[in-house]
Amino acid sequence: MQKLKLSTAPDRQKRVLAVHDISCVGRCSLTVALPVLSAMGFETSILPTSILSTHTGGFEGYTYRDLSADMNPVADHWRALGLRFDAIFTGWLGTHRHVENLDHLLDAVGAGAELIADPVMGDNGRLYATLDGDYVDAMRRFCGRAELLLPNITEAAILTGTEYPYPGYNRAWVADMLRRLNDLGSRVAVLTGVSLEPGRIGAAAMDRYAGEMLYIDDAFIPGMWHGAGDVFASALIGAHLLGTPLDKALRLAVTFTARCIRRTRDAGTDERLGLQFEPELITLADNLQ
Asked: I need a surface site. Which of 32, 120, 156, 187 has the fewest CB within 10 A?
């Protein structure tokens, strides 16, 4: 098999692999990561873990097909082609087999790639009903390999074995949680969906070598904003991979997500269709300059 010719130029276009599910309707997962990262200048490849007719938030009767059996053959084909990635970004997996397949993927094409993990496992203090303790253990081990880790508060508590903060938390709790996440192995931990004052929401981050907590927020807009976490994560990852300092990358991602939410609210369309991020991609690209 003829191997691919890959550029070695210092200013070459970086290549990112996004490993998520595909929800055919309802902007989330791959239908967010692919356009956002592409608009930020990356050659973005995909490895679907499953395919659904819609996402599962508020829809009934959706179809679901597990693609775990296809993941290893895809990785083996890429290895035969000599394909390599600058970064591998993982999201929803869903089964132990998917997690195990990621070990195979990293062995096949992960040499030199920065691993970025969004450990999609739960929300509002609860593990998703389809997952169990063994899955959590497998995800915890996998997340220990990630350079950049992006859980929400529920997922952070699950990963670190910490009690969910009922009825709330403060800045000291958030900083301690970020340190615990870094102790799992990540260099940079980002905690999403953080609110440190009424009417505001954003994200907090910590680089283990700096040890300082960063926090950026914006106005909280009530609603069920499906895919907002994927919009935020994709924008943050893109800025990070372009070498943007962590504080500026965090601000860019929070601001971009807030703009998308406001646009979606003003449009008044069904919230289950996800955020109207596409018209904001031009502004996102301009803000990278």
From this structure: 187
